[in-house]
Write a structure and sequence with these properties.
Shape: elongated
CATH class: Alpha Beta
Keywords: Membrane, Transmembrane, Transmembrane helix
Number of helices: 4
Structural class: alpha+beta
Order of helices and strands: HHEEHEEEEH
Number of domains: 1
Helix content: 40-55%
Pfam families: DUF1499
Protein name: DUF1499 domain-containing protein
Organism: Parasedimentitalea maritima
Number of strands: 6
Strand order of the largest sheet: 1-2-6-5-4-3
CATH architecture: 2-Layer Sandwich
Length: about 150
């Protein structure tokens, strides 16, 4: 019984250390505020690429949606820089996912990916689809709003 309790306490301590590392691991913004060149949508095990025709103000609209999202904060860059990277943490364990959005003319290029693990189980693709849908809703509500 004593060995079992020692094993249980060691397992609990190991989980706490791993979760602490995930939550407190240092983040170098220069490592994350970048994106590879891509010209079309692509899904991969750890995230997604999305290319959307938004017009020249797409990044500003994306920033408004991302900044209002729960557990999301700006990590590096800005709308004025033309590239912005956001970190979104999971609710339960605080796993970080990184989203870099870059304005390229009339195109908004979004690169969302995980930091830890091999698969994001589609979370990044779902989040980016929701954020882009919110941008479209904002556009539609602006167009249909009565002029005063």
């Amino acid at each position: 019984m004593g060995r079992l309790m020692i094993f249980v306490w060691l397992a609990i301590a190991a989980v706490i250390v791993v979760l602490g590392f995930i939550r407190l691991a240092p983040i170098d913004p220069l490592d994350w505020n970048t994106q590879p060149e891509f010209s079309e949508d692509k899904n991969f095990r750890g995230g997604v690429f999305r290319v959307v025709r938004t017009g020249p103000d797409g990044l500003a609209r994306f920033d408004a949606v991302a900044s209002a999202a729960p557990r999301t904060k700006l990590l590096a860059g800005s709308v004025e820089d033309g590239t912005a990277t956001y970190v979104t943490r999971t609710k339960l364990f605080g796993f970080p996912d990184y989203t870099t959005a870059r304005q390229d003319g009339d195109l908004l290029k979004v690169y969302a990916r995980l930091r830890f693990g091999r698969s994001d189980l589609g979370v990044n693709g779902t989040r980016i689809a929701e954020w882009l849908a919110q941008m479209d809703i904002a556009i539609q509500s602006d167009v249909t709003a009565p002029v005063e």
